[in-house]
Amino acid sequence: MADRSAPSCHLRLEWVYGYRGHQCRNNLYYTAAKEIVYFVAGVGVVYSPREHRQKFYLGHQDDIISLALHPERVLVATGQVGKEPYICVWDSYTVQTVSVLKDVHTHGIACLAFDLDGQRLVSVGLDSKNTVCVWDWRRGKLLSMAPGHTDRIFDISWDLYQPNKLVSCGVKHIKFWSLCGNSLTPKRGVFGKTGDLQTILCLACARDEVTYSGALNGDIYVWKGINLVRTIQGAHAAGIFSMNACEEGFATGGRDGCVRLWDLNFKPITVIDLRETDQGYKGLSVRSVCWRGDHILVGTQDSEIFEIVVHERNKPFLIMQGHCEGELWALAVHPTKPLAMTGSDDRSVRIWSLIDHALIARCNMEEPIRCAAVSTDGIHLALGMKDGSFTVLRVRDMTEVVHIKDRKEAIHELKYSPDGNFLAVGSNDSSVDIYGVVQRYKKVGECIGSLSFITHMDWSSDSKYLQTNDGNGKRLFYRMPSGKEVTNKEELKGVQWASWTCVSGLEVNGIWPKYSDINDINSVDANFIGQVMVTADDYGIVKLFRYPCLRKGAKFKKYLGHSAHVTNVRWSHDHQWVVSIGGADHSVFQWKFVPDRKLKDSLHIAPQESLVDSNSDESDSDQSDVPELDSEIEQETQITYRRQVYKEDLPQLKEQCKEKRKSAASKRRERAPGNSIRLHFVHGYRGYDCRSNLFYTQTGEIVYHVAAVGVVYNRQQNTQRFYLGHDDDILCLAIHPLKDYVATGQVGRDSSIHIWDTETIKPLSVLKGYHQYGVCAVDFSADGKRLASVGIDDNHTIVLWDWKKGEKLSAVRGSKDKIFVVKINPYMPDKLITVGIKHMKFWRRAGGGLIGRKGCIGALGRTDTMMCAVYGWTEEMAFSGTSTGDVCIWRDVFLINTVKAHDGPVFSMHALEKGFVTGGKDGVVALWDDTFERCLKTYAIKRAALAPGSKGLLLEDNPSIRAISLGHGHILVGTKNGEILEVDKSGPVTLLVQGHMEGEVWGLATHPHLPICATVSDDKTLRIWDLSPSHCMLAVRKLKKGGRCCCFSPDGKALAVGLNDGSFLIVNADTLEDLVSFQHRKDVISEIRFSPGAGKYLAVASCDNFVDIYNVMSSKRVGICKGASSYITHMDWDIRGKLLQVNTGAKEQLFFEAPRGKKQTIPSLEVEKIGWASWTSVLGSCCEGIWPIIGEVTDVTASCLTSDSKVLATGDDFGFVKLFRYPAKGKFGKFKRYVAHSTHVTNVRWTYDDSLLVTVGGADTSLMLWTYEMEGHRDSRQCDSEESDLDSEEDGGYDSDVTRENEINYTIKALSTNIRPMFGIKPHLQQKEPTLDERQGVVRPPVSRALPQPEKLQTNNVGKKKRPIEDLILELVFGYRGKDCRNNVHYLNDGADVIYHTASIGILYNVATGSQSFYQEHNDDILCLTVNQHPKFTNIVATGQETQQICQLQLLLFTCGMQ
After folding, report:
1. Of 153, 276, 573, 1214, whose CB neighbour count within 10 A is largest?
2. Residue 575, SS3 per DSSP
3. Which pLDDT score is estimated for 628?
């Protein structure tokens, strides 16, 4: 079998040629260590000119387009493009990430800037609104965000002389921002008459509110405040792309190729025209300048970096060059020297020295270059052009040997034959031409077999054959030099290939993912000696595979750095390096090849930190074939926690049923019942898919969870208290280090984590908004302040919280596969580990992100699936339990040892002061010393060891252990079978809590005169439970099949059980031994009932639509009830035992006569008169009201009537238990509702004396007991709510004022139609209607309330200069908003002032003087107002307005008297 594992050698990035000058600006700086920092493709580069050495920051996964330097000049912030772009702040010494800022921007991050003290960072997005964000970058926290502008923003800067002020500029605008609280407010710069409105490309702030900005026409605009005060015209001949402020003044760089230096008052010092220097050329354009002391750094549009020393300004030093804009496709390596040749659409061919890391030759051609090849003697360099021609140059002096054009379409591949005699040229018109080298490149052959463009070619070692790949993925062979196609595969059997660069063929099958488009791998090159090959693909990834690589989906090592397509990749002639080139990022990467043997010495090199996991999860793992997953783990990974409908959807669903509500709301409905129920005891523990979810609290009680209930169990008194804040399955539980608080995470569309107190059972904090579908793991930090959680979304998102504040600190995508456990390092709360399927990762917090490193296994084995983990006695020691029964011991990220601990998976571990305790699938608890060298003691969980005080029976020996915890001299153990056991150190085991195992529980029956009940489940057990205060399982029996129903006989001596295979048994109710069994049906038995009285008949309903009636005494079938059109769901006898009522899945209510089974039709009025022995039906007029409005979405699965026929309890698919008055006539009755079960409540039954209601919850496997409380007994009700699905009018109407206010709609005035009609004729142009007086001819003197105009004003104003319009100043406001607001008038200053609001104005009214002062920052109606009562904050007022973002209330705080 071919080895599918990843190769053990690896690549290390050694050099990057190029600099990103195109479409970027201001991205080149000196660091404090006098190194140069810039970026190219997806790599941040720190270059030391003294040592000619590069360091790389590899934390991005797409093109970097912006960079900012921290004022202390050590830290760098870079922003990238992408669907979910992020900002990395990193250290230029160590090139390690310090902080990650994410989850806000989309598309990309266009500009970045630090403020003066470096605490805050501002970023601008590339989204349609060009969003501006201000970050507290160390904490990764967004402080403020605002839409920036409708058009692109090119530069942003903090005003270094005024705190909280920023300036941004871009297409035809400049904006001056002030940051107040968390609100950013802009004011647009006023160009006025001083200068033309135009695009501003860069800016720098100076003191006294002066801002200098560079414009598109080459002028510099000088701003004072927000006004343009002067322009410096012709500073540059064209657009000014970059402006840099330093101690000495300002440097500007423009499209005209000039760099200008200015003093602090922006008086010119000097001009450096780079076009006129030795290295200059026509069209040189400056994109970035940085001036420090006597050195100036210049970055150009064409990817060069110059360093200029001021006193030798005409001799700039070229320290970096790369290809210019246009795609880069051509790459060839010299056959005998460490040289690489590249050619690009910028029409240049360049030769790079791989040893000196420098460009040694460059030549410009007439056409864009698409491919290159060097002859075997190294003398000729052939270049294939985009226009279908090819050119051959001498390598020595770049002079042309020959130029030939035989084709019209681009030449995409050419190769010299190994003997040097021929050149094969493959073009996009699907043919390969063969040229004779010695005959001055005369055409000697042609290969025409392909139907698509030629992509790759290789010669055989003897130069007799050529293989080609084309765009269709076809691989063809030709005889050389004639070009005749080889069709007989036998001929090719022994052919050795001189090189392997083809992407299709048996030898390279493994480079293709299992499902992939054939064109996304652009290049391959095999290293025959090292038996490895390297590939380049469209995702910007360079991969290393074994060669040959025969089976699809082989493992590999992958390297990020290129941002878009990697177009070509080649080994150097001596296989020391790999050279790769990027199409759109036009950069050349040189990678050092580190073979296996070197790896051994470099084990201390930590694996690369990554912020990103690749898009290919088949990768990076070192194993060839995945070991078999343990059956239990496999089962668990397949559980889905997705719901068709979540409880969060209920309000929305009800909203959709509005029509139904309207019709029903008018009818009078019964009140909800007066009596209520209270959760009293829960049998069950969630062990089958959870782990480490069981702990001792401070007071020695036990806390765990089942269904949607957090349970605190007192083992002395055998009582339970419940946390009922969740509304769906709880999947994980963690305890605070002080053992008094607990965190639980649940399933939900937007799932929540609750932190609650185990003493008071009150919630302390609820965390929402970051996990989809559910939370599967939580952990507290050692100081108890932080909480880590993992979601069950596709990326298993990991979130770190400050839980008291409810604030998300950091988040990251964890893994594609399931994560089981997260643990925070007890010594360093910024570090954590996660373990899961083939996953062991070490994370550290960096601002708003987490940076993960995979556990480094080295030669010790392969990545196993990890099931549990703990930290050890120092901060770098960690221990994890695997699915194969080993314990792995880690130091930092390295695996240093493994110890065999259990047979089968290790599911739980717990660290003690001196040692560890582990539990596994083998049912053994093991105690270990503190180094895991010795196992001190083992305890097997066996029936024989059960102590007499146990609350039940062990179902089997050695149950799989899922949770372990220590305390109070005992070991607490939770098993997969739903048992909680306490193991005494001396050996005896006490069983405390027990429930059904995995599988749905449907069957439930209560005893006719004793406080016991029976349940039967899909876990193939029948169990009898004691409902008296001893709360324990009395008996259990394993069945051959799972069951769905059971029923006691009227005397309580027999128990009938219906099974899933269509058979049923009758067993002795005390011993559970068989009395009789039958099988007449193939489908599930869904309901089974003894007739009342003597229990003469037994009715057995099945899912194949029949009810069989048996005579119990004679054990014969005496009747069959036919006529149901669907499976039978519920069944009840009447008191006489003569009539059966049946419900079916098609919602039919049918009646049959017993014992013959004849179908009867009974009108509904008669049904109500019949006395029924029991009522568990959900259909009929008596229980019409139990169906919710959203009855299509959810079913009422069960009901049961109290013996006094007053209260009907129901269970439904939403996990609600509800109480209705009986009969529940009329639609949508009112009810009391209780949540404790998670999804379906499958059955409900009252006990014989109605003192308890017993419910079972399908998949949550729990059995819950509720005490029934009469109306007066109302102390601590836990009912979720007393409500109904709709609020009808008779619930007490509204007062008319309240109704009106309730219906006010605050639409946005700017968006709604105008208040005044906007058509008609302006008043002064209207034809005046004659008044009544005028019509009657009465003349009256003009009467007006206005004062008569003084004479002066009646002269005409011609010839006088108009006075400029002064500002209007608000003097007095009449009015107060009382119509729809409340509590919005307050005294301030001990009654001297009154504060209130009207329209959009806050008004401070001085009582003594009667004067008003105003707060006018709002721009729409204020709707609420409050005053801070705290003595520290006197006179602080908050007002809230309606605003254009409908959901966002803008709160403004202001100080009265200061405004």
Report:
1. 1214
2. coil
3. 59
Say if residue 1192's pLDDT is above 50. Answer: yes
Cβ distance 1053 to 1063 under 8 Å? Answer: no
Measure CA of the first residue to CA of the last residue in the chain; give whole Å.
80
Tokens at 1300, concatenated: 């009106």
pLDDT at residue 163, rounded to an integer: 85
Q: Which residues make Cβ contacts (< 8 Å) with residue 1352, sequence separation at least 6?
A: none
**Nearest alpha-carbon partner for 580 in 602, 595, 565:** 565
pLDDT at 1447 over 60: no
Give the Cα separation of 857 and 865 in Å (integer): 13
List, in order, residues 6 or more apart from 197 with CB less than 8 Å away. Answer: 172, 191
Give the SS3 label for residue 1296: helix
Rounded distance between C-alpha atoms, residue 329 and residue 536, angstroms = 12
Distance of alpha carbon 902 from its chain centroid, rounded? 35
DSSP 663: H
Nearest to 328 by CA among 355, 303, 360, 293: 303
Alpha-carbon distances, residue 111 vs 83, 135, 563 (angstroms): 17, 13, 19
Tell me how far apart the alpha carbons of residues 620 and 631 are, in angstroms, rounded to a whole number: 25
Distance CA 66, CA 75 (A): 14
d(CA 985, CA 969): 7
Paired residues of 1162 in beta bridges: none
CA distance 1046 to 1090: 10
Per residue in 697-706, pLDDT (tens digit) is 988 899 999 8
Express each pLDDT in 293-310 by its tens digit.
889 999 998 889 999 998
Q: How far apart are CA 1350 and CA 1363, in angstroms?
A: 19
What's the rounded Cα separation, in Å, for the pair 59 and 44? 8
- List pLDDT tens digits, range 781-809: 999 999 999 998 888 999 999 999 888 88
Strand order of the β-sheet with 1422-1427 is 1422-1427, 1436-1441, 1450-1455
**Beta pairing, strands 741-757 & 730-735:** antiparallel
**Which amino acid type is present at position 1314?**
N
The structure's pTM equals: 0.79
Instruction: Examine residue 1092 and say whether the peptide bond preceding it is cis (omega within 30 degrees of 0).
Output: no
C-alpha angle 556/504/454, rounded to 5°? 130
Q: For 923, which DSSP code?
A: S
The answer for residues whose C-beta is within 8 angstroms of residue 372's C-beta and 6 or more apart is: 330, 331, 332, 341, 342, 343, 349, 381, 382, 383, 384, 414
The whole-chain average pLDDT of the chain stands at 83
Look up residue 896 and give its amino acid. Answer: I
1392: exposed, middle or buried (C-beta count within 10 Å: 0-12, 13-18, 19+)?
exposed
CB 570 within 8 A of CB 333: yes
CA gap 823, 778 in Å, rounded: 8
Query: How far is residue 883's CA from residue 637's CA, in Å, rounded to a whole number?
Result: 13
Pairs from 20-23 (Cβ < 8 Å, separation ≥ 24): 20/63, 20/64, 20/65, 20/303, 20/585, 21/287, 21/288, 21/299, 21/300, 21/301, 21/302, 21/303, 21/304, 22/287, 22/301, 22/303, 22/324, 22/325, 23/65
Q: Using an 8 Å Cβ cutoff, are 1212 and 701 in contact?
A: no
**Beta strands, E only, 1286-1330:** none
For range 481-494, the mean pLDDT: 84
Compute the distance between CA of residue 657 and CA of residue 605 in angstroms, rounded to an integer. Answer: 63
Q: How far apart are CA 418 and CA 480, in angstroms?
A: 12
CB 222 within 8 A of CB 228: yes
Q: What is the pLDDT of residues 810-835, one digit of tens each?
A: 888 888 888 999 999 998 889 999 99
